[in-house]
Amino acid sequence: MGRVYLAEDMRREGHFVALKTAIDGVAGAPSEHLAREFLTLADLSHPNLVQVYDFGHVRNSDGVPLPGTPPGILARGSPFFTRELVIGVPLLDAAGDLPMSTRISLMLQLAETLAYLHRQHLLHQDFKPDNILVSDSNVAGREPRVKILDFGLAVPRSEALRAVGHLRYLAPEVALGAAPDERSELYALGLVYYEMLAGAPPFRGGSAAELARAHLEQVPPPMPDVVPARVRAAVNRLLKKEPESRP
To answer: Are 191 and 239 in contact (CB under 8 A)?
Structure first.
């Protein structure tokens, strides 16, 4: 839901941050959209969520792109916010190289973070591997930690009225028109878990209609035997077609 750049905070020499700007074509005013994401994250405090710092608008006087940026990016008035710079590896890339015990640790971190968001009556609405990084996965003596990114679609539960996000992580009931809720995000969590453990998504489709039908009708293929039985059972429960059957 935006472009992210590496930037240096000139007030603190040598301190680098991630700077996020809006993308053309996003519904609603870019400034309002980014401001909402910034304020959502500013109200949250959890070790597996990114910390935000500042929100503002570019004020270079001539209104042209800043040096070194692509045309049309960061012109005068462009909204932006800065956040913690996370040096990490995409979740699925990291998971494939980690022992099962470490993957399970990351799974628990994801569950705890999603539970925290739900206690704040907030739905992420775009919970997928692309929005999750693993930091410290190659640092000796440090436990790998997940960081959940991109809250551009996050809303209070009471404002979640329709399907948004990627169809691959859409719960069956939402595909049928139900409003998203915590249970539909648990389904997305189960899909992320499955990919972490099996190395591939449980459902595929050559079209949006085929993928939606797979969510509605297909049973996930068995996970590898190396996955502990209790973990397989927990993931399969998250992937139940009926929302009331999920944890």
So the answer is: yes
Q: Give the whole-number percent of the chain exceeding pLDDT 90.
A: 66
Choose the weakest-confidence range: 46-50, 125-129, 135-139, 170-174.
135-139
With 0-12 / 13-18 / 19 or more C-beta atoms within 10 angstroms meaning exposed / middle / buried, residue 240 is middle
N-to-C CA span, the chain? 30
What is the rounded CA–CA span in Å between residue 105 and residue 111? 10
Supply the residues annotated as catalytic.
126
Q: Report the distance separating Cα 112 and Cα 146, nearest Å.
A: 11
State the Cα–Cα distance between residues 22 and 11, nearest whole angstrom.
24
Beta strands in the chain (DSSP E): 3-9, 15-21, 52-57, 79-83, 88-90, 122-123, 132-135, 145-148, 155-156
pTM of the full predicted structure?
0.88
Cβ–Cβ under 8 Å, residues 123 and 157: yes
Q: What are phi and psi of 80, to 5 degrees?
A: -160, 160
Residue 224, SS3?
coil
pLDDT at 72: 47
Give the bridge partners for 132, in sequence order. Answer: 148
- Give the number of other CB atoms < 10 A from CB of residue 31: 15
Contacts of 36 (CB under 8 A, 6+ apart): none
